Amino acid sequence: MEEKRHAGILAASFVKDGMTVGLGTGSTVYHVIVRLGERVKEGLRIRCVSTSEATTELAESLGLDLIPMSEVLNIDMTIDGADEVDRSCNGIKGGGGALLHEKLVADISRIVVWVVDSSKIVERLGAFPLPIEIVPFFHMQLISKLEGMGFSPRLRMSGSCPFTTDENNYIIDLETGFIEDPEGLHRKLKLMPGVIETGLFITTADIVVVGSKDGAKVLRNTR
Ligand SMILES: O=C(CO)[C@H](O)[C@H](O)COP(=O)(O)O
């Protein structure tokens, strides 16, 4: 909790007056949004693009100015969380179910900053089950195909019903084991009919802010 807060507060300090800011989703970004709400009350002028209904609700409650994604061509800086990050700044995202929207917002962002606690930094991705957003009525077929490829897929549930994303899709959480080639796996999965997006974000982050007990440090993507 402290680590997430430290990372969030440092990342929020990167936002400058006049920026269009992408707001990610999750418990670490929560601290970014709260800090941005405070800075806006102190006079910071920004426009924000949300990546989920949960983030929209929080940002609105703090008085942040939100614009719909459909009206934005470019975003100056997006700050988002991640479930795992490797040394090349590849990541797994989607633990909170907002991966599709998060990937689209990242795609039009000049700078992408990820905020994570220290437990998220890994040598190789794959301990965290990989979220894949899929077409709901094809989930049974996809699960069978993924099993045939040697993976252990699990349909994400919310109580006794399948979890649905803000875009009304389903998510399969895929036990992959350590991923040798994140980009190769992402491409392979994306080629499967019914797969809408994968939670593999390939060298997406320009900056990763890693919280610690006493502060936060910044890792830069040197690609
Ligand atoms: O990808 C995400 C949501 O789709 C989140 O950014 C990711 O799950 C990290 O969340 P948290 O900061 O709560 O650990």
UniProtKB/TrEMBL annotation:
One cellular component term from this protein's GO annotations in UniProt: cytosol
InterPro entries: NagB/RpiA_transferase-like, Ribose5P_isomerase_typA_subgr, Ribose5P_isomerase_type_A
Residue runs in coiled coils: none
GO biological process: D-ribose metabolic process; pentose-phosphate shunt, non-oxidative branch
Keywords of this entry: Isomerase
UniProt KW Isomerase keyword: yes
CDD domains cross-referenced by the UniProt entry: RPI_A
UniProt-listed Enzyme Commission number(s): 5.3.1.6
Catalytic residues identified in the record: E102 (proton acceptor)
Binding site for substrate: T25, G26, S27, T28, D80, G81, A82, D83, K93, G94, G95, G96, K120
Catalytic reaction list: aldehydo-D-ribose 5-phosphate = D-ribulose 5-phosphate
Domain of life: Bacteria
MF GO annotations: ribose-5-phosphate isomerase activity
Pathway: Carbohydrate degradation; pentose phosphate pathway; D-ribose 5-phosphate from D-ribulose 5-phosphate (non-oxidative stage): step 1/1
Family: Belongs to the ribose 5-phosphate isomerase family.
Role this protein plays: Catalyzes the reversible conversion of ribose-5-phosphate to ribulose 5-phosphate.
NCBIfam families, sorted: PRK00702.1, rpiA
HAMAP family on file: Rib_5P_isom_A (MF_00170)
Complex formation: Homodimer.
Protein name in UniProt: Ribose-5-phosphate isomerase A
Organism: Youngiibacter fragilis 232.1
Gene: rpiA
